UniProtKB/TrEMBL annotation:
It comes from Tranquillimonas rosea. This is 3-hydroxybutyryl-CoA dehydrogenase. Residues 187-282 form the 3-hydroxyacyl-CoA dehydrogenase C-terminal domain. NAD(+) binds at residues 10-15, 33, 92, 97, 119, 143, 274. GO terms for biological process: fatty acid metabolic process. GO terms for molecular function: NAD+ binding; oxidoreductase activity, acting on the CH-OH group of donors, NAD or NADP as acceptor. SUPFAM superfamilies: 6-phosphogluconate dehydrogenase C-terminal domain-like, NAD(P)-binding Rossmann-fold domains. Transmembrane segments: none annotated.
Length: 291
């Protein structure tokens, strides 16, 4: 199947990055969000990130202008009806995602491939809430999307070969690399990464180290580009907690118990970079550790 137009649902940090890379690779993109402000912010951020790529001589000014011209925005979900591929990248909450699919499905062409960028939720269960489980897949991009090479491809129990092959070809057209994961809670990347981040929060909670000592230890001791607490803030603490809850509920093992400090931060609205405060405070010129 020829994929030319892509609908992206959710204009947060992942939605804007996904729209950016698809537009730069020549796809027409229609980006939607319930929040008009998020749509405006996403467009500005895409423009800024494309400009950064021009400065670093990764792309030309005309590549940037052409990519921006390929991105349209809408607040009406039904406008995505004519797209060939839909990527849902809204908040990591199953009720939010299923409500989106239920609203969207009546407007879609029969051949449209439906995907979710979920970090952890069962693809089989999400697919079962649509009219096309055989054309439904997990399509998991990494943050920041324009920089990260990997896309995890997750087949639900009903996904057909044609859909998998079509998405594999899309990943190649973006110049990225696919890794296949089976449909178990949090797939591969977050099954491994999120317990490490959660353990870093326990290390802080139990007073083994400060925010700075934990991040410095992991950056300089294991050559990670970001420390685990800095990375948690970058991903979003609400998303980290949601993933730990899916692991805990889905695998029924206490080793996945979310750290109470992570829960408390989310309850306080301290969600990391996106809310201005998490393990670091981002309101000044440089991030300041909070513990
Ligand atoms: C939660 C999930 O479900 C799954 C996930 O995504 S888990 C999270 C996965 N992501 C990570 O682990 C990220 C870890 N961090 C990193 O790799 C690095 O810190 C980073 C790439 C984010 C930034 O690297 P840095 O060296 O500190 O910053 P900086 O020098 O400004 O940028 C590095 C490059 O990225 C580019 N870049 C950074 N952010 C960008 C963006 N949003 N858009 C476009 N380009 C961007 C820069 O232009 C630069 O490009 P070149 O090297 O080609 O010149
Ligand atoms: N952050 C990360 O590092 C990664 C996240 N992901 C996954 O990507 C998805 C998005 O995450 P991320 O971009 O970080 O989250 P953000 O919180 O940055 O963005 C989510 C966006 O979705 C919007 N939204 C909520 N409900 C709806 C709806 N019904 N219709 C349309 N838009 C809606 C939110 O609006 P509002 O703010 O008004 O609620 C917000 O603008 C999640 O499933 C997450 O697990 C995958 C890989 C990495």
């Amino acid at each position: 199947m020829q994929i030319a137009t892509v609908g992206v649902i959710g204009a947060g940090q992942m939605g804007n990055g996904i729209a950016h890379v698809f537009a730069l690779s020549g796809y027409d993109v229609l980006l939607t969000d319930v929040n008009t402000d998020a749509l405006h912010k996403a467009r500005d951020l895409i423009e800024k990130n494309l400009a950064r790529q021009v400065t670093r001589e990764k792309i030309t000014e005309s590549d940037k202008d052409a990519a921006l011209a390929r991105i349209s925005t809408t607040q009406t979900l039904a406008d995505l009806g004519g797209t060939d591929l839909v990527i849902e990248a809204a908040t990591e909450r199953e009720t939010v995602k299923t409500a989106i699919f239920e609203d969207l499905v009546p407007h879609l062409k029969p051949e449209t491939i439906l995907t979710s960028n979920t970090s952890s939720i069962s693809i089989t269960r999400l697919a079962s809430r649509t009219d096309r489980p055989e054309k439904f897949m997990g399509f998991h991009f990494m943050n920041p999307v324009p920089v990260m090479q990997l896309v995890e491809l997750i087949r639900g129990i009903a996904t057909d070969r044609e859909t998998y092959d079509a998405l594999l070809a899309v990943v190649e057209s973006l110049g990225k690399t696919a890794a296949s994961a089976e449909d178990f809670p949090a797939f591969i990347v977050n099954r491994i990464l999120m317990p490490m981040i959660n353990e870093a929060v326990y290390t802080l909670y139990e007073g083994v180290g400060s925010v700075i000592s934990i991040d410095t230890a992991m950056k300089l001791g294991t050559n990670h580009p970001m420390g685990p607490l800095e990375l948690a803030d970058f991903i979003g603490l609400d998303t980290c907690l949601a993933i730990m809850n899916v692991l805990h509920d889905g695998l029924a093992d206490t080793k996945y118990r979310p750290c109470p400090l992570l829960t408390k931060y989310v309850e306080a609205g301290w969600l990391g970079r996106k809310s201005g405060r998490g393990f670091y405070d981002y309101r000044g010129d440089t991030p300041v550790p909070t513990r």
